[in-house]
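assembly run, all chains below
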Amino acid sequence: KNEVEQSPQNLTAQEGEFITINCSYSVGISALHWLQQHPGGGIVSLFMLSSGKKKHGRLIATINIQEKHSSLHITASHPRDSAVYICASLNFGNEKLTFGTGTRLTIIP
Amino acid sequence: EAQVTQNPRYLITVTGKKLTVTCSQNMNHEYMSWYRQDPGLGLRQIYYSMNVEVTDKGDVPEGYKVSRKEKRNFPLILESPSPNQTSLYFCASSLSPLGQGVTYEQYFGPGTRLTVT
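ok done. output:
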């Protein structure tokens, strides 16, 4: 059974800092999904990636298939980036998603 | 406006009283899925559907039923709710199944907070 772990669980940083959130999984997967959950509870998809790197604005997601590891980076962090960031692995051969428990990010002005 | 809607948003009910949480999307998406979110456990997938009349179990399907009779709707049915089904439920949809090579994002509904007493 695939297990997905995120680190750190909580992260507090100053505005402008470069942020890295890590996600590791235990078995081979077909893709890795990054989500953002706002303080109000709403969930937004950020990235789905199966190899290499993807970038959207100040957000960058990378995945290393051999090491079973993905990272989410935020450049020039801003208080509006404060949220819970969740990674989820997509199993091979089906559409099952296994989620990490999330990283709570707080950016202080 | 492209969106996923869920109803009701909040529900308090009693053990054993059948209920349905509706989910509807207006984007002609093929893929739809239900998740529950619990403190300390995070999000867990209940059921998913890759198209009309095609549904499959996620990680925690026990105590739930789903149906996909039309593309836009994917209701979640609790035939006999129990207190351990108290949770925050999210429905989501995607243009195509997530693993089909072209990886589309998921659109999430606003969530339904269910309390079973």
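The first strand of chain B starts at residue 4 and ends at 7.

Chain B has a mean pLDDT of 93.

not gonna interpret more than that til we talk
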